[in-house]
Amino acid sequence: MTVPLYIPSALLSFFQLHQSPTMQGNLKNRMAFYQQLDMYYNVNGLYNPQIGADAYLGVWDESLKPLRDCAHRVVEFYVSKLEPGTSLPIVAPNDAIIDPIKQIWLWSNFFSKKSMIVRQFALYGDMFIKTSVSADKTSVHQQYFPPRYVMDYEEDEMGNLIYIRLDVQSDDKTHTEIWTVDGFTTYLHKRGQEEDERYLGNPVSQGTLESLGIDFLPFAHAKFIDVGEDWGIGCFTHALDKIDEANRMATRLHEMLFRYNKALWVAQANANDAQGKPLPPPKVSGGSNTLTIEDDTILSLPGTSTLSALVPDIHYADALAILQDMMLEIQHDLPELRYFDLQNAGTISGVALSMLLGDAVDKVLETRSNFEAALVKADKHALTLGSIADIFTGIGSYDAGDFDHTIQDRLVFPLSDADRATALQAYTAAGLPLTSGMKLAGFAQDVIDEAVSGRAAENAASTATIAKAFNAGQLPPTG
Q1: Is the pTM of this model over 0.85?
Q2: Which of 92, 208, 364, 418 sits CB 3.0–4.6 Å from 183 for a disulfide?
Q3: CA within 13 Å, CB half, 379
């Protein structure tokens, strides 16, 4: 599409988006795409830029409305299922790092911001985590950046960042950070995003990685869906064309409904004049020839005149069936949508939900793996920086592998108490120990510990009772 140079800047983002509808293009196209994703998520006014752009060029366009925009629901599915709860179970060979990691998350307000972090991750397809020590060297923080603040980045073959530029705008100022393997430079300016570094003025701070005591960039990057490109894919990006088509069909169906689903009246004169010519139809107007009773109006027509209703034969049911088939097609691409249908189907166990929503569960687990891999890398950065600043002591070192840890696997749809009891019964009947069976059945560790100690107490009491009875001669000797 050739875009005239006189098009207002407010409409340029629309053309930039549709010239390259992907986040893999240049920076302006990528930023325009993020704005468009915001509009899909917020639903209202989604197609206003398109209609405005076409109107400016004198091109008629249908008044599309986002009547079947499902993007918001898909994003919120991941907000509730990707990292639910107010804690994450850490699994580490070195127990000394568990409490420091929890403290880092607390300093970073991770669980307070978690919904926003996951929401942006699912919407835009990328997440960046920066780790830094506070100015007074008493805490370590993790900051989460959506990709609209990242102008560019580069990773090595191990997935470690070796270059990144951040441009964070606030009011009329832009905070720019440029990190390379040689060091970092920070600017505060009014030039906006992506301005050439030569024109940003004097740095407000700069230094080498060695001055921080590290040999790595303290950044971690995760992709929501990794397709091998530089930038990740969001949770509904692959279904945009189908969502647009469903919105087009729904808009047309509604237009037909409101335009044609009302009576069109015609007044007819069923008589001829003296010369045999048909009489003109009677004129219908308000006044003495109308009678209103409640919300009905009765017309009085002369002679043999009649008033007939002409309602077009529009097959709404057929059109609706086509739209419903399109929504089913979208569900094949976005199986997360079935979750909202099942919510209205009554009480369903976690086992049943996991089976019915197997495709959605697989997607959550894949994305959770990407998210937590970046979180673990950021935790290692934070432990390293905390050790250098003497915030944490006695926790070992990164080089010795003391900071290795994972986040324990969890079910996407937790089992109910009845589900867990049934699973535990099956595991123990198969010969598994109580502890292993409870872990597999999804019981919390504190519940497992309590059950094990209770079982040990019961066995001890039973043994004591038997020994007492034996010593009293109430039981025959064995063997």
Answers
A1: no
A2: 208
A3: 27
